[in-house]
Amino acid sequence: MLIGFEEIKKDAEIDSYFKATNVYLANMGAIVHDYEHSLTVAENSRRILEALGYPQRETELAEIAGYLHDIGNVINRYDHGRVGGALVFSFLLRMGMEPEEIAVVVSAIGNHEEQTGSPVSSVAAAVIISDKADVHRVRVRKTDFSTFTTRDRVNYAVEHSQLKIDLDLRKITMELTIDLEISSVMEYFEIFLTRMVLCRRAAAHLGCEFELLINEARFL
Questions:
Q1: pTM exceeding the 0.85 threshold for the entire prediction
Q2: Which segments of 70-184 does DSSP mark as H helices, in order?
Q3: 43 with 51: CB under 8 angstroms?
Q4: Whose CB among 62, 74, 184, 207 lies 3.0–4.6 Å from 126's, allowing a Cys bridge?
Q5: Residue 160: helix, strand or coil by DSSP?
Q6: In this structure, is the dihedral angle defined by the CA atoms of residues 180, 184, 185 and 187, taken in order, positive or negative?
């Protein structure tokens, strides 16, 4: 059975876990992983594959995986990718998705974290890049600057972020504008270097170059 993105968004069970996830992460003071983040990752995952000419169904599977990629946080913040893949397997099986498509979605979710992830498919590659590109100060939940972790500070420093796909040049570009009074470029790399390396591998899987621009200067 073909399960579409709209059906995923309307599923009451999935939505219950989404709501609980955001409550639990709020109690931890973690970076926001709400509907907006999930929808942003979903949209950009689909957009990457669309721009590169992938089949429509593959772009929709990327959209589904992007939307569900963080749901494993309902169990624990750590290793939430692999946990989330197992959870989503049960959701999609219940909904009647074909096994071949379930495999694509859950492997993308299980491989989106930089510690253990790998671009095992075009869908996984798109989700990796889209997730790591969603950095911005609006995702910082804390209001007391003295309690910020380095990750909080780096995210809070980002005033603008944009993901661009150039089909002709086969280039995927992540553009950031950072307030250097809040976080230095070196601090950004301290936190995000492993993520950017994974993004470069993901772009290569899609036959593209990955480029990182910070304040209009190229770093990758």
A1: yes
A2: 80-95, 99-110, 122-133, 150-157
A3: no
A4: 62
A5: strand
A6: negative
